[in-house]
Amino acid sequence: MKVLFVCLGNICRSPTAEGVFRRALEQAGMAGQVEIDSCGVGNWHVGKAPDARAQQAALSRGIDITALRARQLSAQDFVDFDYVLGMDQDNVSAMRQLKPANSQAHVGLLLDFAGTPGGEVPDPYYGGEEGFENVLNMIEAASDGLIQHLKRER
Ligand code: 4NP
């Protein structure tokens, strides 16, 4: 099973989701069964580490995302991954445009797995540090729901 988290820049929300979900998988004893990665719809930050505020907010919850590096979403990702999960509707629209016709991947919003269908993780880039705490809270809730879903799918 392979899960890809997608946001706009791959320096705030999706690396946070990757870090949170990696730890949730470890805690659920599923670390060896699910492969995960993150990427961005855009290419502005390719090769860069996560935003310093995202790194700090994650570290304060014991999650180290400092080694992650941004990359851009590609058509091949829809062949390689089973779940391609966006943070907001803009992400999902851009993802659907890139998805090849032969892809069987589930493409949708991460928060659909948080029991809040249609919910979006807001872009924290231009706001303050509280925005990053909000992102972490939302992603943690979705991460637990996604684990339950994957357990049922197995
Ligand atoms: P992310 O946040 O999509 O959560 O990584 C953003 C990071 C950078 C930009 C936008 C959103 N930007 O426009 O540079």
Layout: helices, strands, pairs:
Elements: E1 2-7, H1 13-27, E2 35-40, H2 52-59, H3 77-80, E3 83-86, H4 89-98, E4 106-109, H5 129-153
Parallel strand pairs: 1-2, 1-3, 3-4
Helix pairs in contact: 1-5, 2-5
The chain binds 4-nitrophenyl phosphate.
Your description of this structure?
This protein is α/β, with parallel strands linked by helices. It has a single domain, classed as Rossmann fold, CATH 3.40.50. It is 40% helix and 13% strand. Strands 2-1-3-4 form a four-stranded parallel sheet. The protein is globular, with a radius of gyration of 14 Å. The N and C termini lie close together (9 Å). The relative contact order is 0.22. The model has no long low-confidence stretch (mean pLDDT 97). The structure holds 4-nitrophenyl phosphate. 4-nitrophenyl phosphate binds next to loops.
Count of individual helical segments: 5
CATH architecture call: 3-Layer(aba) Sandwich
Q: Which structural class fits the helix and strand makeup?
A: alpha/beta
CATH class: Alpha Beta
Give the uncertain stretches in residue-range form. Answer: none
Count of all domains:
1
Small-molecule components bound: 4-nitrophenyl phosphate
Main-sheet strand order equals: 2-1-3-4
Q: How large is the radius of gyration?
A: 14 Å
CATH fold name, please?
Rossmann fold
Rounded to the nearest angstrom, the distance between the terminal CA atoms is 9 Å
Query: What form results from the Cα inertia axes?
Result: globular
The share of residues in extended strands comes to 5-15%
Count of distinct strands: 4
